[in-house]
Amino acid sequence: MDTENEDEQIQKQCVQLFSSTDFIMESKVFDTIKDYFRHGGAPDQVIELLSENYMAIAQTATLMADWLILTGVEPADVVNMIVQHLQTLIEKHFEPKKADSIFEAGGVPSWLTDMTEHMNWRSMIYKLAEAYPNCLMLNFTIKLLVDSGHEDEITSVPVAAQQVEVFTKVLMTTIQRTIDSEPDGWQRNIQELVQLACHSEHTYLYAQSVLSSLANDAKSMIIRRISEEIELHAKAKGHNVTEITLTLDGTTVYPKVYQPLCTMLSKKALNPADVTTLYKIYQSNDAPPVDLIRKPAFIELLITQLFDPDSTLNPEHRPKYINLLAYACSVAETNKKSSRKNTINSKEELSQTTIALEKAHEICISSKSTVDLISDLNELYKCLRFPIVAVCVLRWIEFRIFDASYFKLDQGTTPVHLIIIDEIVSLHFLLHQKAFELLVRVFEATFAELDILVHLEFKKTILDRMVHMLSCSFVHPILEYIKKRWEQQDTDVSLIRHFVFEVLEMIGPPYEPSFVQLFLPILQNEAIAGTISLRTEEERKCVKEFIDKSMRFCANISTLFNDIPKLTERYVHVSQRKDYRFEAIECQNPYDLPLDTWKESISKNRSLEWILINSLPLYDQIKEIPTFNEYEKLVLNRTLDYAKVLNVNKIHLVMMEANNDSDRLKIIDLVHRAAQFFQPHRILCLIEPLSTRLNYYLQSYSTAIEIVQSSKSDNLKVMLDSFHLQRLHGNLTERVKELIPFVGHVQISQTPNRDCPMNENGEVNHRYFLSKLIQPFYQDYIGLEYNDSSDICLSLKKIMSERYGFSLTTFSPSGKLVQIEYALNAVNAGSPAVGIKASNGVVLATEKKSKSLLHDDRTIHKVEPICKNMGLVYSGMGPDYRLLVQKARKLAQEYMLIYEQNVPPTQLVKRVADVMQEYTQSGGVRPFGVSLLLCGYDYDEDRPFLYQCDPSGSYFPWKATAIGRNYVNGKTFLEKRYSDQLALEDAVHTAILTLKESFEGQMTEDNIEIGICDKEGFRRLTPAEVKDYLAQIG
Fold first, then answer.
1. Contact, 612 vs 586, CB < 8 A?
2. Burial class (CB in 10 A: 0-12, 13-18, 19+), 338
3. Sign of dihedral through CA atoms 253, 259, 264, 267?
4. Residue 158 to residues 372, 472, 473, 843, 1021, Cα–Cα distance (Å)
5. Angle at the Cα of 766 (from 763 to 768), degrees rounded to 5?
6. Using CA atoms, how far apart are residues 413 and 447, in angstroms rounded to an integer?
7. pLDDT digit string (tens) for 304-347?
8. How far apart are CA 78 and CA 81, in angstroms?
9. Which residues pair with 613 in a beta bridge?
10. What is the pTM for the complete model shown?
């Protein structure tokens, strides 16, 4: 009886399956039929049910797909249509219980593994996992995807948070991506990480625990910054995470610190009693770690309490608040395993910070008007060199400007508070973002008490501050903001125009591509720099110069330098010839040389960037049009190998001839699929009509545009070659306007002979072509693909040298600031100078020749005292030296006023070097054209010092050295004569003999100058003393 019931039950289940639509197409149909027959089922019923329910849905879809392909639809497009339809059906009818049943048979179905290999199906799985979080099959698949390395694709927080292992991998991937991100991508990545960590309480606690552990390893500063961003986001959502934060960072180990800190941070308000408690703890000899109070939230509370003009702070408590703030910002710790070494940057640093904070607080809080503030401005500027003081003053400025009574007290259009922001920006690049955010708030604020014209002038003043920030290398955020204001048309055009021309007056070539991309669209607008708007010749000149010099050229080593036989030799030639001014190269066919040969050549010469190579030409590989698999094996794989070694980001797909339309369609399909092949590698594919190959599949730029438009990949563009464009179509002006949106690379050469584009006997005016048609819309490299020898066209060299003056803030491709090299050239052309450190002092000596007998040079000196115990000499440009001498003397006197003792030589040298270094990273200025030799006597260490300071801001201690003209001979002579036991008198003789090595003419007391520094101090020798030394040498 039981057997009969079982047979009936199984027959019923099988009949139910046979009745389902298209069951005959299912893979398990044969097993089901066997089960049905085994338990007594009738064959007729099977045939009837399978036939009645056969709707041929899959076969119909296949047939329709074939029809679509025959009508000319791309096969890839047809596949995408089918996949998208299937995905829609699956998402609509998905049942988690049925999905979980796939595991009943045991093992993982092969089709599931196959699905995970395709991006489209993975995207569907992520979407379903978010909709059905309890589905076992989906959770298993997500884990399978993570194990396969696809965790970076999971952007849905609920999906990632379902499993600890999955969440951990996604979290670590997101953290690493955030750490490695460029400044432009930081905000996007940190937002993703914050959303992931703050999904729930357990994800927050887990993420912060992981970050706390990572903070003990490398890159701890950026890890802490990430942790702080997550904490801020949690607080912004109304969660009190103070206790979690203090527990994870170890504050609970110090209960006396934890209790007052937790109370104040939770309430977001300071309490004098709790501040006093912390003050006493950190004044003790065994103070806890400084990190406990170096919390952004706590520091922010201290700053607000001290520098908010409306704050009611008891004067008795003020020193405690200031001391805690100074301590938090001037104490450094070194953690080594279990031991913690607590070191203050020096007691002097803590003391200086405290004094500066007290002085700044006194000036800011007591200044009731502009006149009061101006009188104390110099003192405030001295305090601003401390970063924490600059932060506090910036916050105070924010309070003051947005005070309702501000413009009643300050009627000027350039309030002194905004000028203070300039000084802060110049001193502290890490405060650029905060200063910019404040300026944006002020710019966008509405001040009802101001007249319209006055408000307009006030906004121009704010824009001037932004221009100053731009000169201090804070470029992209400012340009993006101005561009946004212009696009939204919510800002008076006169303000945008004012900004544009202020920037044009300041900048110089060459221009960073990203800068051109942001700035040029604003400049090109008719309302900003159109012919009507340009009121002066100077303005027209500025606009023209910027447009003309925004171009960057790369050399095509396959056509240029054709008198050099090997491509590698041409590559080396271009990299070594600095006068060509090429930053990058392109090559048609690098495949003639093995990869190892290119690797070796590139490893020795890394100064050039590779921009473009051709793919292996298909017409050289095969006669018949290949299938894509054949094309991939023959061409694409090898091309990709070379692209990786050469590090190129553009590939020109060189195809073959097409005898008919059918061949042409097959080749176009190969092009589309090749673009998909290169897309994961972030390589841009280019197609180019060729006028030089008969029956080439692409003979028209209009057809090229159609191919790009029909591609589903966004990495397929047109290569615009002025040579082919002129030969195929002519009328470049109209054609370029049509092509520009689709152009991925530009090449130029003159028609009809493919010679120098600047050849005036050719058909194309390339000056017009480049400046009017290309440059306003295209900011990438322009390839020079014309035939020439290594004695390259002089007209082109002239254009490139004109555009390449090297601005201060622009690195060359080899990583150099070339202006610094120019400054060193000025030093090496200057008068020789020598410095020698003896056992009991230091000697400085230099050549001092008068340019004319009529000069009265009694008041002109090259060896100068700085203070009692220090002096210096230079080689290079005299006016630059004069300014540095004044700065050094001022720094020495500031130290004397504060500490009532002479400045240690090492400290002064460092501060002078800081001044010189600042002029290498600011726009609108140039490096100092001098090298300095500074000598001094340190009374604390009871020994002399000799330092050299270069235009880059580098400084080095020396025993003996020479700078200026023939410095190499001078150093060689010193290496032979120098001894550690050298006495000061002997050092003077050695210095004179060193100068004689390169001295022209008779050396007298009038044409050399000597200074000595010993325990008694620094002094310059009189002409009579110099004469005596010369006599002793004979």
1. yes
2. exposed
3. positive
4. 58, 43, 41, 73, 80
5. 110
6. 13
7. 999 988 888 888 888 999 999 988 888 876 554 444 444 444 57
8. 5
9. 587, 651
10. 0.54
